[in-house]
């Protein structure tokens, strides 16, 4: 419970727009992330979600955990589908066929859906400049189909397709930089261990009414990463405090603001998880160097 | 109330399998998954709501006297609340015996 002001939970919205009865694993931080995202977005929201854990666990016919209109999407489609909802509904409002109303048009997908399979349609929606929010839930692999590596899986992690000692030997794709390069109004990273920061960013994304706003939301996965469910928040928090996943915002693709600090050794973060158990101390030292370099690069950008 | 899936025939499904009842997943009681249950020592609870903030299953509720406790209908027993409680007043207890 370090670095967290205890009574700040009072500032968090009490409504639950993503209900109990979902079928996520015990201690699923991604499900908790969806819960907080939906608190911040509120009920005047339409969600298009790519297939993945959060889609499967929340919508087994005839049940749904959603309290907002929610559309199931094939893997690559949420950006395309929600951008068409936005254009279509705005046209109908203009023509007086439906009442004028502020609606949050939101696409959601996992890291696989976002950084790999849906990247093309997402880039298209960015370029067209739709009034929409995109939330990427990053648990650093294709979890729903049994832990295959994605381009968002970090260097050093074992998965079913980079098994055991053949752990992944390429770096995590920097999705935020790709978004920022499109010069969209708002891009931010968030982490489920910092729910107030997360909700502030979602509310900010919601309040901007033109162009795509992108939230890259880090959430740990006990099943895929190999740790006890009770540690899901602790491990997500360590990702920030070790600077492996810093919190920051980018406005108009160029104004960088860093929202997190911390100087915990990345060793402490990695050693809590089974997926990194094959790494030697030397390998971890290389990860530390990489983290330091990236942190320096980010600070240079924030200094402008 | 939606019928259980096994009782629904295809003729009863909405076109496109649209579900028209919001949040009806609440009728699926995930509490049966649990092997451990969180027990709150109410006298020590400082009513900060941290457990509520971090429960992935939105199943921490406020008791009438203001302290927090788990709704066992949905609690999956993950133990996050016990780990995150700043005063350590939640203990996980085995459901067996
Ligand atoms: C085009 C296509 N390829 C593969 C699949 C199978 N598939 C469904 S969900 C999923 C994994 C999703 O991973 P991610 O987007 O990271 O979400 P997560 O489950 O990790 O939350 C895969 C591979 C599919 N549905 N469609
Ligand atoms: S596999 Fe991971 S992300 Fe998927 S439901 Fe389980 S804990 Fe959540
Ligand atoms: S054990 Fe897990 S599911 Fe149960 S109340 Fe605590 S945080 Fe919620
Ligand atoms: S986290 Fe602990 S002290 Fe805070 S409300 Fe929950 S049980 Fe009470
Ligand atoms: Mg994933």
Notes on the structure:
The complex is a heterodimer of chains A (304) and B (97). Chain A has 304 residues and is of the alpha/beta class. Chain A has one domain: Thiamin diphosphate (ThDP)-binding fold, Pyr/PP domains (Rossmann fold), CATH 3.40.50.970. Helix content of chain A is 38%, strand content 15%. An 8-stranded mixed sheet of chain A has the order 2-1-3-4-6-5-7-8, sandwiched between helices. In chain A, a hairpin with a 3-residue loop joins strand 7 and strand 8. In chain A, helix 3 runs parallel beside helix 5. The longest helix of chain A has 23 residues. The radius of gyration of chain A is 19 Å and the shape is globular. Chain B is α+β, with helices and mostly antiparallel strands and 97 residues long. Chain B has a domain of 63 residues: Alpha-Beta Plaits (2-Layer Sandwich), CATH 3.30.70.20. Helix content of chain B is 10%, strand content 16%. Chain B has 2 helices and 4 strands. Chain B has a two-stranded antiparallel sheet with strand order 1-4. In chain B, a hairpin with a 5-residue loop joins strand 2 and strand 3. The mean pLDDT of chain B is 94. The chains are: A alpha/beta (304), B alpha+beta (97). At the A-B interface, helix 1 and helix 9 of A face helix 1 and helix 2 of B. One iron/sulfur cluster binds next to helix 1 of chain B.
Give every kind of bound small molecule, once each. Answer: thiamine diphosphate, iron/sulfur cluster, magnesium ion
User: Could you spell the SSE succession of chain B in H and E letters?
Assistant: EHEEHE
How many extended strands of chain B?
A: 4
Shape of chain A: globular
Q: Number of DSSP helices of chain B?
A: 2
- Taking all Cα atoms into account, the compactness measure Rg of chain B is 17 Å
The dominant shape of chain B is: elongated
Helix fraction of chain A, binned, reads 25-40%
Helix-strand category of chain A: alpha/beta
- C-alpha end-to-end distance of chain A: 33 Å
Largest interface in this structure: A-B, 41 and 44 residues
Low-pLDDT residue intervals, each spanning 5 or more residues of chain B = none
Q: Tell me the span between the first and last alpha carbons of chain B.
A: 34 Å
Determine the mean pLDDT of chain B: 94
CATH top level assignment of the domain at 35-97 in chain B: Alpha Beta
Main sheet of chain A: which strands, in order across?
Answer: 2-1-3-4-6-5-7-8
Q: Helix- and strand-based class of chain B? A: alpha+beta
Q: Could you give the count of β-strands of chain A? A: 8
């Amino acid at each position: 419970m370090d670095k967290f002001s205890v009574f700040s939970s009072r500032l968090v919205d009490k409504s639950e727009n993503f209900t109990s009865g979902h079928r996520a694993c015990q201690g699923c931080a991604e499900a908790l992330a969806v819960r907080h995202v939906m608190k911040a977005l509120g009920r005047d929201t339409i969600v298009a979600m790519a297939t993945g854990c959060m889609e499967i666990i929340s919508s087994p016919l005839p049940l749904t955990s959603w309290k907002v209109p929610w559309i199931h999407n094939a893997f690559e489609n949420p950006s395309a589908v929600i951008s068409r909802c936005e254009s279509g509904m705005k046209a109908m409002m203009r023509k007086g066929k439906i009442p004028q109303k502020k609606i949050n048009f939101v696409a959601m997908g996992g890291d696989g859906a976002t950084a790999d399979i849906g990247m093309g349609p997402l880039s298209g929606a960015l370029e067209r400049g739709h009034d929409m929010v995109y939330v990427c839930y990053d648990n650093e692999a294709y979890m729903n189909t049994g832990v295959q590596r994605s381009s968002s899986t970090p260097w050093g992690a074992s998965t079913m397709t980079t098994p055991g000692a053949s752990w992944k030997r390429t770096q995590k794709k920097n999705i935020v930089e790709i978004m920022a390069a499109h010069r969209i109004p708002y891009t931010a990273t968030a982490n489920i261990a910092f729910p107030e920061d997360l909700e502030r960013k979602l509310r900010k994304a919601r309040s901007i009414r033109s162009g795509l706003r992108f939230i890259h939301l880090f959430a740990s996965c006990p099943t895929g990463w190999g740790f006890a469910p009770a540690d899901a928040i602790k491990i997500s928090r360590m990702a920030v405090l070790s600077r492996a996943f810093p919190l920051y915002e980018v406005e108009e693709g160029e104004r960088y603001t860093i929202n997190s600090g911390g100087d915990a050794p990345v060793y402490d973060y990695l050693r809590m998880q089974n997926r990194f158990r094959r790494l030697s101390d030397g390998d971890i030292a290389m990860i530390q160097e990489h983290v330091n370099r990236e942190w320096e690069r980010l600070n240079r950008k924030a200094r402008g | 109330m939606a019928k259980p899936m096994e009782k629904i025939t295809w003729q009863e499904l909405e076109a496109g399998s649209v579900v028209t009842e919001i949040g009806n997943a609440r009728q699926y009681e995930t509490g049966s998954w649990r092997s451990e249950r969180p027990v709150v020592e109410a006298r020590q609870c400082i009513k900060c709501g941290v457990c509520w903030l971090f429960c992935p299953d939105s199943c921490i509720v406020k008791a009438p006297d203001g302290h927090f406790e788990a709704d066992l209908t949905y609690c999956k027993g993950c133990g996050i609340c016990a780990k995150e409680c700043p005063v350590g007043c939640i203990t996980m207890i085995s459901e067996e015996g």
